[in-house]
Amino acid sequence: MHHVKSKENNALPQYRTLVCRYNKGSVLGPIAMLEMTRIAPNSRCRQALALAVLAASCICASARAALAEDDAGSSPSLLPPEDPVPAMRYKDLTTEQEKEARVLFLQLGDASFEKRHDALRQLLLMGPGVLKLAKGYEKHENAELAAQARDLPRQMLLKFDGYLPPSEELQKNLRLPQSYQAGKGSICQMILDHLEKDAGLTFYWEQKPDLNAPSLEVSKDWLVSGTAGKVASDFAAGFGMVAVPRGDAVVIATPATAEKLQTQRYVFEWKNLGLDRDSAEYVGNELKKFLPQDAITLFTGSDALSVRGRWEAIERTARLVALLDPKAPPVQWPAQGLALPAVAMQEQLHKKVTLKLDNDGLPQALQQLKKQGCLVGIWAGGTYVEDASNLREANCISPMRIVVEDVPMGLALRWIASRAKVLVDGGTELALLAEADAMGRVYFRLGPKARDLWDLSLGGRDVAFLAPGEEPGPKTDRFLRDRIVSVLGPNLECFPDFRPGEDVLVIRGRAIFQGNPPAVEWALELLRRWEKTGKPPLCAWHDEMLARLDRVVGWDGRGLTAGTLLRKLRDLGGFGIQIVEGDDGTAPDFRLTKAQAELLAPGEHALRELLDELARVANAKWSIDCGAVVLRPK
User: Fold this and answer.
1) 551 with 607: CB under 8 angstroms?
2) What percent of the chain stands above pLDDT 70?
């Protein structure tokens, strides 16, 4: 067996409340993400972080027409029933296992302590499937057996180290909003009563404290607000404990036990892949690139893959393994229909816009987009608002300098997100993120700079048609991946949250994509067209850009300065030119002499030649990035 372990991501942001800390490894995971309510006396509960969501809906007539054209190929249905996760979550005992379990239940009432202890241990190893049988023994005439059966759910939640995710019903309940004012008496008992009654939560305690202790009594000025999951997390933290959602209940355990409960295990059989020892290690290392950088451990073998980590990581691994199946059709998981099909979504994102910001903020950028036919709005505090000028969430973005002309809207949104600096209280490190979701919305939101993989969709398909006759393996996979990124990258760049360099894997001739649903669906659709026609998909904006760079123009740079030089090149090329910092924060040196600003001798030159000379005299390098020419220091 080979051992592959990811590194801990120490750059992940931490958010603090009055009584607990949340990070990517917290027990409530994405359920409680960025919900920083607090329980505080004599004040209203305040949200420490506000999320802003900009919704842009630009469904043009050409997008609707594209849906009707058969040659364009409407997006295929990507809602197959083969998602492996549901079958993992609701696995009942086999007939043989049930017979074995019934024998073990009877042993729970044995006079021998050793036999009772051994029977309990074996039942716990069998997993949550035995809990259905336990109900039939809760009123057994043997008092010891009945007591053990009634306590089995708590024992399972506290001791089972296998895969035990929170049920869908529990996840839904944890998101329910909670808001109430404490009356006189024990605030802890009051909170628990509300969570059980209003949110339908069931709690199991590892060590239950006295909730009615006099020291816990407070005045009626206390206000509790937030989702049920966040309130439960803060509630447990007040006792120095941790709330862990498992199965249909929330376990409140000590930090040491909570850490064990979060580290679950699962074994996937992949005999059908026909891997040898070295191939299994290679596949495991490649899969790790699409798994969250929270602590997760993979043990690879030729017949099986063992995973230890959070339940979300186990479910994501299940989908990745299923996508490697040589017989799997083009597929996307989690399965979800798009409100706006990807073929129309990409038309929307390819709509050409011009963006000129000179020390302007986000509201001004949105106004420019709106004037060019993009309906713009912002989600602030769960409310849709069209006018962003007075919203704090929009005005916390510092002024930007951006000039991009005649570029797809998706690329303009990338420029805004990349150049924005967020100003928030408390030194919280945030970023402005541009995304496109399954509802057909294109928007900005504030969020942590570290990328969250939990919510990203996965999709994959066979791409061996791009390298016919080649043996599967690392060398062929690298060739296929480079080919896919080179050809599809410019198209996928228009989905502002998709990262072609990071979101594409090829493993044993199977391409795997991660991203928001419309981006993944469009990637699979482009590959379908490529295989059907035998021709690489075109990308209009990228091809136009290359043609402009190769165009020969009459040039005379005499009398130009560095500033007028850039403006003249922009006018001649019809594209934006951006000067950006290098990795160390330094910018290209544009203190050019008059001789340097002339670039080449007067005459006929291709724009590409002029940019090469500009990069040379400025000790920089240039590239095409998001529909513009970008100059960076070497």
Assistant:
1) yes
2) 82
